[in-house]
TrEMBL record:
Keywords: Membrane, Transmembrane, Transmembrane helix. One of its GO terms (molecular function) is hydrolase activity. It is found in: Membrane. This is YhhN-like protein. It comes from Cercophora samala. Its main location: membrane. It comes from the Eukaryota. It is a multi-pass membrane protein. The chain crosses the membrane at residues 6-24, 82-102, 153-170, 176-196, 208-227. Pfam families: YhhN. Belongs to the TMEM86 family. One of its GO terms (cellular component) is membrane.
Amino acid sequence: MSTNAYTADSAVLAASIGSAVVYQAMVRASPSYSRMVIKTASTALLSVFSYLRGGPALLVGALALGSTGDAFLAWNDETSFLFGLASFLVAHILYIILFLHAGPGAGDIGAKLQVLQSGDTWRLGTAGALAVSVPAMIVQLMPKVGKGLRAPVAVYSLTIFVMALMALTLESKEIVIGAVMFASSDSILAAGRFLVPTTSAHQGWMHHAVWALYYGGQLLIALGAVARV
């Protein structure tokens, strides 16, 4: 890759991180188009960065869909939430395919699970924690969400679990940590939206934690994936 290409992707990455920092400062602000643009730019620029670095098409697509989901979730109405959920659902599916066909046991789910079982203890422990926490979260959410959201939320939660599980079979610690951070951000987002009262003092730190974990997770996945191109 030429020096100019490295300069371009470095500039795009810096702009992405800058946008993420700016959005963190306004994460609790009222919905607006400027807030939506800054939020969306953070992940959209990660997609551009991955493309410039010659990253896998699945990675570029997943990040682009993430930015689309960010645009929808910048608004608080239920329709936007559903469109955002759909965007992120497809993004997670792309990540699952990407992780499935990477690393040991590429393309073979059975081999992937064997790698996980015989790998580091912390990986297996993390997978076990997810296997317990994801169903527990679904059980808590079902009575709290509207009937029209129950199936989408359950499917989405299970898809996140599979995404994180596939990431845990990879050697890249950046991707593993990033995927777990992404899953954690979604759990906090769901808790804040459906389980914790909007008047609770916890809403403040939860909003900031969701963004930090989400963007940090996407950033680490992107960096881990392009490093192996």
